[in-house]
Specification:
alpha/beta, four-stranded mixed β-sheet, 126 residues, 2,3-Dihydroxybiphenyl 1,2-Dioxygenase, domain 1
């Protein structure tokens, strides 16, 4: 995957959520002003993977509804800590942290913008 986009109803709120969850910084993309298009920078992002965030062009799906598109999963140092942070800062439970043998500890949260995002702390060494 080279690039993905996150569609949100409230760009500043989503910047705050994702910025604090994954330590990302956002900047406006030239030419994307009509959609409030933002590019993210930070850990895990760079030439091989870029992230864009933009104003959602339709209604935000209600919380708790089925997956509404692709699910992005990001590596984090402590899945439980990041999951707790997300729930305390506007996120909602989608799938609580669980261990997957040979893979790691994984969880999913709703971001308050109609999206589901995953986190994984991989198992160490093999």
């Amino acid at each position: 995957m080279a690039h993905f986009e996150i569609y949100v109803a409230d760009v500043p709120a989503a910047q705050t959520f994702y910025g604090a969850l994954f330590d990302w910084r956002f900047s406006p993309m030239a030419g994307g002003e009509a959609a409030s298009y933002q590019l993210a920078e930070g850990p895990g992002l760079g030439d091989a993977l870029t992230v864009g965030m933009m104003q959602r062009p339709d209604e935000t799906p209600p919380a708790g509804s089925p997956i509404r598109g692709g699910t992005m999963t990001f590596e984090v140092p402590d899945c439980d800590e990041r999951y707790a942070w997300a729930l305390a800062n506007g996120g909602a439970e989608a799938l609580p942290p669980a261990d997957y043998p040979g893979i790691g500890r994984c969880a999913y949260v709703e971001d308050g913008q109609g999206n589901v995002v995953g986190m994984i702390t991989p198992v160490e060494g093999d």
